[in-house]
Write a structure and sequence with these properties.
Elements lengths: L1 E4 L6 H10 L4 E4 L23 E3 L5 E3 L1 H11 L12 H26 L1 H17 L2 H11 L11 H10 L2 H4 L7 H11 L2 H16 L1
Parallel strand pairs: 1-2
Antiparallel strand pairs: 1-3, 3-4
């Protein structure tokens, strides 16, 4: 299986999931221009040009972060990074994956990280996007006051949330104002699998 990624993009969550589950994969970094080493344009794999994407030896291709993370969770040893299907916890995990995707990733951080959004909207759009962090951060902070993870143990939803929270300082989203979330992020960063995944991508980010 190949995982197509960009350093410290949301695809970091998929790398963390693979590390946590002890699954093997070939990691393929997607260059800024999208032209892969094998000559293909990345849009042949991911039509929108987004990471993460996975490609198996049988030719199965999957895109969209929550779907990729759910797929990895299903490949992992039972219970390693997800919950038994048709359980309440399993569907809570899916809900959190979608919460992170819609309320944080797309609503808050895409306008702050995307060059096209910044150029189109300027400072006003950035300020509006940054302000949108408050309501989902309040929901997360209240939820995490009494637990270490989004559910009773680590799951791919935590991996995704961590990948997104890593962008706070760069985008000037004030995570320091949310001590519960700051502490949560530091706990996750201390996990061995998370530390390995971040260490693998940090030099690539600096070189990009």
């Amino acid at each position: 299986m190949k995982l197509y990624f960009r350093p410290f993009a949301c695809s970091l969550a998929a790398r963390i999931a693979l590390e946590e589950a002890g699954l093997d994969a070939e990691f393929v970094q997607v260059p800024a221009g999208g032209r892969l080493a094998d000559g293909r344009d990345f849009t042949e794999i991911s039509p929108m040009g987004y990471v993460p994407a996975i490609e198996t030896g049988t030719g199965f291709v999957l895109t969209e972060g929550p779907a990729v993370l759910t797929y990895i969770a299903e490949l992992a040893p039972e219970g390693a990074i997800s919950f038994t299907g048709f359980s309440d916890a399993h569907y809570r995990m899916l809900a959190w994956l979608n919460f992170v995707a819609t309320e944080l990733h797309k609503a808050v951080f895409v306008p702050l990280l995307s060059t096209a959004y910044v150029q189109a909207g300027g400072e006003a759009e950035q300020a509006a996007a940054r302000a949108r962090h408050a309501r989902p951060f309040a929901v997360l902070s209240k939820h995490l006051e009494v637990r270490d993870f989004l559910d009773d143990r680590f799951s791919v939803a935590d991996a995704y949330l961590l990948a997104v929270l890593n962008w706070c300082e760069y985008t000037k989203v004030p995570i320091a104002d949310w001590p519960v979330l700051s502490a949560y992020r530091e706990r996750l960063r201390a996990r061995p699998a998370v530390a390995r995944a971040m260490a693998a991508e940090w030099p690539l980010l600096k070189a990009a």
